[in-house]
Structure formats: C-alpha cells, structure tokens
Design goal:
isochorismate synthase, alpha+beta, Anthranilate synthase, isochorismate synthase activity, binds ligand ISJ, 22-stranded mixed beta sheet
Length: about 450
C-alpha cells in the first residue's frame, strides 16, 4: 500500500526566530507539547521541537520520494526570518525499516514515513540558543507568529526548574522475542546459507519487551544518553496517534547514515564490534584485537565497499578514511568515515533512499538479506535500524541509523539490537553482542 498524507503540503510556512537566554534542555522538553521532537548530533545544533506546524507522512516503497516531494512542496515558498541558519525551519522524522512495514505492536502509531515541522523549536547552536515559531495554514500570518514568539519567549523564561533527573524507572518484567535455542538455529541457518554461497551477510536482530516499575521520563533519559554518549546521534520521535498512550521512539546511535550540505556528503561505515575493557590498557588491547580480527574486518569491509558503490553513481569523487575504532561507553566498533563530492545537486532523501539499508543493518545481497530478515525475525523492526533525521528547504539534511533505541509507552518499552552474521559467526558470541547493544538503553531503565 502506498499513500501520501500531508495536512499542509503546498501551504506557505511563516517562521520567525529570536535569540533567547539558554533554558535547560530537560525543562524545555518536559514543557513541550506533543508531538515532541529531539535531534542532537555531533557537530550539529541540538533541537527540541514542540507540536507540529505541518506533518507529512507516506507508506510503501516510494516513501522516500513521497516525503521528498512533500518537503519540496512545503518549502517551495515561505516567509522565513530565521536570524541564524541553525534556527531555520526543518522537517524532522524518519522511516520504517521495511517498505512493507506492518505497523503491528509496538509500532501502531508509526507509518512508513513521518516528518514534522515543529510549531515551536528551541535550537542550541554554537552562536547561542534560538527560539523559532513556525505556522503553516490558516494562522500562518506574520503578526500571529510574532505574537506567539513573544508568548513562548516569556514562557521559556519562567520554566520551572526540573530538579535533578529522575531515577531510572526500574525493570520489573522482561520478555525476549527470541529464545536462545531459536537464535542459535537462525544464526546457524544463516551461516549455512552463507557457506552455500546464497548470501554474503545478514544482520539479525532481537527485541526485548520490558515492563517498567514507573512511568518513563523521556526527557531525563534523553538527557542522560547525551551525557553518556556525546559522540552519538540522539533522537526522539513521537507520532500523535489516537490509539492509546503516546508512543516515543528514542535512542543514541553511533551510526551516521548520511549528511549532505552543498554537494558534500559525509557518511560512516560502522560494523564490527567488541566490548569495553576494565582498564585503558584492556580497552587498547580489545581495540587492537578488533582491528586485526579477520571476521570483523570482513564484516566491516562489506559495508564500506557497498557504501562506496552506492554513492558512486551520484559522486564525482568518493574518499574513505583509514579504518579505525569508535569507542563508546559500552562497546567499540570498527569505523571508516567516508566522504563524497556529488557530481550534481541532489536531495538528501535521494541519498537516504540509495543507502538504506546499508549492509551494517541489512546484508548482502540486499534483497536476499531483507527476505531472510523478514522470514527469520519474529517481530516487525518498525523504525528500528531505519533512517531518522532532518531535511531543510535546500534539500540538505542529516540522517542517522536508528540503533541503540527503544519504543516506549508510559510504563513499558521495547528495545531492539542486532548483529551482522557472516561465514564465521558463532551464535553464542552473536547472542552476547546483542545483549551488549541493549546496554545503552537498558542502563537508563534498570535501577542499579
Ligand atoms: C545492528 C546494530 O548495530 C550494527 C551492527 C554492528 C555489528 O554487527 O558489529 C555494529 C554496528 C551497527 O552497524 C544494532 O546496534 O542493533
């Protein structure tokens, strides 16, 4: 099925911004209206969005193109005074992993693609903090927007102090989607197909449902993730649905899918994983072992080569940096930063479509890997491992791969994590790696 839903596409955004004194991130997010948006990336301004001036949605295999068309229509004309580039109106959102996502639990509120132009946006940039108000449709006139800007500026000045962040809610129940025996059989079956030459690599994931002792404070979790994972991409997506409590999809992912500005493209090959050591010396030893490990290097190179090939049709040059290790609080990954110069102007969503899913989260060959994932995983990935990010009026944008993530509702959450399976994969080691990749989110939920 394919559909395009847009309440205001084609209507003209009116947007005004003003520099404000810096309010606390947690206080702003707590006071935000649904749908709330967070985007925070290394070397980018952090954005907290409140409400929606416009929403665009799409389903099906053409969801990337549909969103691109809707974004172009929305941004085709406008009355925008941003004051600074970081405060300009942008659409924030993401996509489902599979073209035919079924949106079963816990993904009922998540269509194939959904982007929001926040009504009120607080932007923490290098040159200060900015408040932006944007309207689209009947109330999109400059006087109304300016009055609203004044009102919100006052409101932000007198936000209540959020106090110390809440303790994690505690995990009182957990259910795995995949029992260990089933996991072993699935990984062994994938390894056999790889040995038979039917597949090169497939990324298999698990989901973990947890019951929480208390309602989850999403603002506190996102703030803490920022402290623990400063080099990661933090995101929060909250579609407004009619069916039951508000769902929140959030995470802190180390993996950039694509950044586009002008004709310069930046992306990452990130695949191949080991743990953290107890001491700096042990960390170094683990990192060196990872860099020398044939299985992990093979798994990684499949990703780096594919990304280079996927970018080649668009690019006048593609450059891969040296393979290195990205060290995070809970794991270490093999990492190759890749840059490209485009031969012609492109919209970031064309690159998102070309790159998703990279073999870091899908596999090779892509079609066979995707059908293996569909046939093997007893749950829908929903938006897990799919692109999340933003796009602006120029068609520039920044997208990450939604890993180290969970979808929560009040006092429950579902976590997702996966691993690349190649010829030498051992099911028990891959199982352990999945558990390690739950840690960033689980650490925010469990009481120590
Ligand atoms: C699939 C995940 O991570 C991906 C798989 C990796 C691997 O197999 O080594 C490493 C980083 C990510 O590209 C996840 O975190 O869920």
């Amino acid at each position: 099925m394919e559909s395009l839903g847009s309440d205001e596409a084609g209507a003209r955004p009116v947007s005004r911004s003003v520099r404000i004194s810096k309010p606390q991130f947690r206080a702003v997010l707590r006071a935000a209206d649904a749908p709330r948006t967070v985007w925070s990336a290394p070397d980018e301004a952090t954005v907290v969005g409140s409400g929606a001036a416009a929403t665009v949605t799409a389903d099906g295999p053409n969801r990337f193109e549909r969103i691109r068309e809707a974004a172009e229509a929305l941004f085709s004309s406008g009355d925008v005074h941003a004051g600074t580039e970081a405060a300009r109106p942008r659409l924030f959102g993401g996509f489902a992993f599979h073209a035919d996502s079924v949106a079963g639990p816990p993904w009922e509120q998540f269509p194939g693609a959904r982007f929001v132009l926040p009504r009120v946006q607080v932007t923490y940039a290098d040159n200060g903090t900015w408040l932006t108000v944007t309207a689209v449709g009947p109330d999109a006139d400059p006087r109304t927007v300016e009055r609203e800007l004044d009102r919100h500026r006052e409101r932000l000045r007198s936000l209540p102090d959020p106090g110390p962040p809440a303790d994690p809610p505690g995990v009182v129940g957990r259910r795995r989607t995949t029992a260990k025996g089933d996991w072993r059989s699935s990984v062994n079956a994938a390894v056999e197909r790889i040995r038979a030459g039917d597949l090169e690599k497939v990324v298999l994931a698990q989901a973990l449902d947890v019951d929480l002792g208390d309602d989850l404070s999403v603002p506190d979790v996102l703030w803490r993730l920022g402290e623990a994972y400063p080099d990661c991409y933090r995101f929060l997506v909250e579609p407004v649905g009619d069916d039951g409590p508000q769902a929140s999809f959030f995470g802190a992912t180390p993996e950039r899918l694509v950044g586009l500005r002008g004709r310069t493209v930046e992306t990452d090959a990130l695949a191949g994983t080991t743990g953290r050591g107890e001491t700096p010396a042990e960390d170094e030893w683990l990192a060196n072992e990872l860099l020398a490990d044939e299985k992990n290097v093979h798994e990684h190179e499949l990703v780096a080569e594919t990304i280079r090939d996927q970018l080649a049709p668009f690019a006048s040059s593609v450059n891969a940096g040296a393979r290195r290790v990205k060290r995070l609080a809970t794991v270490q990954h093999l990492w190759t930063p890749i840059t490209a110069e485009l031969a012609t102007d492109e919209h970031v969503l064309s690159l998102v479509e070309a790159l998703h899913p990279t073999p870091a989260v899908g596999g090779l060959p892509p079609d066979r890997a995707l059908s293996t994932i569909r046939d093997t995983e007893p749950f829908d990935r929903g938006w897990y491992a799919a692109p999340v990010g933003w796009v602006d009026a120029a068609g520039y944008g920044s997208f990450a791969v939604a890993l180290r993530s969970a979808v929560s509702r009040e006092d429950s959450a579902t976590l997702f994590a996966g691993v690349g399976v190649v010829e030498d994969s051992d099911p028990d080691r891959e199982w352990d790696e999945v558990q390690l990749k739950y840690r960033p989110i689980l650490d925010e939920l469990e009481r120590s």
